[in-house]
Design goal:
By secondary structure, this protein is α+β, with helices and mostly antiparallel strands. The protein is built from 16 helices and ten strands. A hairpin with a 4-residue loop joins strand 1 and strand 2. Helix 6 packs across helix 7 and helix 7 packs antiparallel against helix 12.
Length: 387
């Protein structure tokens, strides 16, 4: 079975130049693993999502103020540093591993919901319910609360696209405000009676001896919602597709369920849920032989970098025993994905339990499509049936 390719990423993946300038997008596209890793780890390349958006917004002078506050957390600076410090303890590998039994229970509940059905959709019926349940658990807002907030989060995620429209940005600003209005009444109770949830942890923080400002606190929670739902759901769906398309590797994982962790790493390499990362050069430099001027924006094509034949033997082969996957799907440097431990555990537990419980799963048809997005490597749906 061939892989389902997002056509908007195809040009990146098929280009042989390690770094090239794209006239239409007005960015340097970085396709080689070595050059992408250099950009991710060199402090001379920074994240300034706000500055890179403004030149392309037409009549919109600046994003809505509510969205602007969230964008600040994508950018190098004190707001981003405070955010990472605030959530690092709750999302640390040790804390996430303590959550593993509960995550497994959430996965089992999602699988219970399809146990009597001869066919179902892995995206809508498994991946999304799992990540919604985990977000509900992490924030202590209940499944109904998580569903309400994630409806906003899907609209906010449009800001991650290469060319978000003015309408998308205005809608994202409205969605950020909707999230804030939902969350604001919860904060006093969490301060008075804190639990073990992440919101309680955040409201108790006092960097510099003062509580976090309410607007910054709300923005942090929104950021967690955006990053903590769609990417892990797409990772789960991409992993299910990869394993269904490679029966020998699926049998190998079934025979040794502990291989789920290495399977997830190979899925991350070949099917990263995030399509690209962007950086801005703070100085004139030369990258892989290509001059890059200060202020230039670079787009790191993760699809191409993670399949670079200069880095990987037989790069298109799906091999859950690959000794050094070394993918770049979580980024690197000061912006390395802080939720990577949680995303890995969600995918491991879901894929291991999905194929352990339903060993006879098969694709229900070949007509699979991906979302028309450069930001997300995401299946619209993944119909499966029990044979």
């Amino acid at each position: 079975m061939g892989r389902v390719v997002n056509p908007r990423l195809r040009a990146f993946a098929e280009d042989d130049e390690p770094v090239r300038y794209d006239e239409e997008l007005e960015v340097y596209v970085v396709s080689s693993h070595e050059a992408a890793r250099t950009v991710l780890n060199d402090p001379g390349f920074v994240t300034d999502r706000l500055d890179s958006l403004l030149p392309r917004l037409g009549g919109l002078d600046e994003p809505p103020s509510s969205l602007n506050a969230m964008l600040q957390m994508f950018m190098d600076g004190p707001a981003h540093d405070r955010f990472r410090l605030a959530v690092s303890r709750d999302l640390a590998p040790k804390r996430v591993d303590e959550m593993r039994p509960r995550i497994g229970a959430i996965v089992d509940a999602a699988l219970d919901g399809v146990a009597d059905r001869p066919a179902f959709d892995v995206v809508a019926d498994v991946a999304y319910p799992v990540t919604i349940g985990v977000i509900a658990e992490l924030l202590g807002i209940g499944v109904a609360g998580a569903r309400a907030l994630l409806g906003f989060a899907s609209r906010i995620s449009a800001v991650l696209e290469l060319r978000p429209t003015e309408r998308q940005l205005l809608d994202a600003g409205d969605a950020v405000r909707g999230c804030a209005l939902f969350l604001l009444p919860l904060l006093p109770g969490r301060r008075a009676n804190p639990g073990r949830d992440l919101i309680s942890s955040l409201v108790s923080l006092e960097p510099g001896g003062e509580p976090l400002p309410v607007d910054e606190l709300l923005t942090m929670i929104v950021q967690i919602l955006v990053a903590g739902h769609e990417p892990p759901a797409h990772l789960i769906a991409n992993g299910a597709l990869d394993l269904l398309g490679h029966p020998a590797e699926l049998r190998r994982m079934r025979s040794k369920p502990g291989l789920a962790a290495s399977a997830v790493e190979e899925v991350l390499r070949l099917g990263s849920p995030i399509g690209y990362l962007s950086r801005t050069a703070t100085r004139d430099t030369v990258l892989a032989g290509t001059p890059v001027r200060k202020g230039s924006r670079l787009v790191l094509d993760l699809t191409a970098a993670n399949r670079d034949p200069a880095r990987y033997d037989d790069p298109d082969r799906f091999d859950i025993l690959r000794p050094d996957p070394g993918h770049l799907s979580f980024g690197g440097g000061g912006h390395c994905c802080i939720g990577r431990a949680l995303g890995r555990v969600e995918a491991e537990e879901t894929l291991r339990r999905l194929f352990g419980r339903f060993p006879d799963l098969a694709l229900d048809g070949e007509d699979l499509t991906r979302r028309a997005s450069a930001a997300f490597h995401a299946l619209d749906r993944l119909p499966v049936r029990r044979t």
